[in-house]
Amino acid sequence: MTSDSMQARDHSDKLAAYTDLDSLQEYWVIDLEKPLLAQYTRDADGWQYRAHTALSDTVVSEAFDLEVPLRFSTWCVKP
């Protein structure tokens, strides 16, 4: 999960470091300010990016063998 101040770092420096790891198959960055889950997945062609922005989206992860509906995220919880 990332804040506005850390978002650029999570999508650049950290992403570059993590994607250099041969064992890493998937990397998620969750924006706490708006409904956005950035999903980076590795396949035979390299790294693929998918932005999940609709609360009706379900994030499917083959690496973790799970499905996560975005509607159950922190964006639905208001103080």
Q: Would you mind describing this structure in some detail?
A:
The structure is a single chain. The protein is α+β, with helices and mostly antiparallel strands and 79 residues long. The protein contains two helices and five strands; from the N terminus they run ααβββββ. The protein has helices at 4-11, 13-19; strands spanning 26-31, 36-43, 46-52, 58-61, 66-69. The strands form two sheets. It has a three-stranded antiparallel sheet, with helices on one face. A two-stranded antiparallel ribbon has the order 4-5. Helix 1 packs parallel to helix 2 (13-19). The mean pLDDT is 81.
Taking the alpha carbons of the first and last residues, their distance comes to: 18 Å
| Strand segment count | 5
Number of helices: 2
Q: Measured on Cα atoms, how large is the radius of gyration?
A: 13 Å
Please bin the fraction of helical residues.
10-25%
Strand order of the largest sheet: 1-2-3
Structural class of the secondary structure composition?
Answer: alpha+beta
Ranges with pLDDT <50 over ≥5 residues?
Answer: none
- Write down the overall mean pLDDT: 81
- Sheet with the most strands? 3 strands, antiparallel
Beta-strand content bin: 35-45%
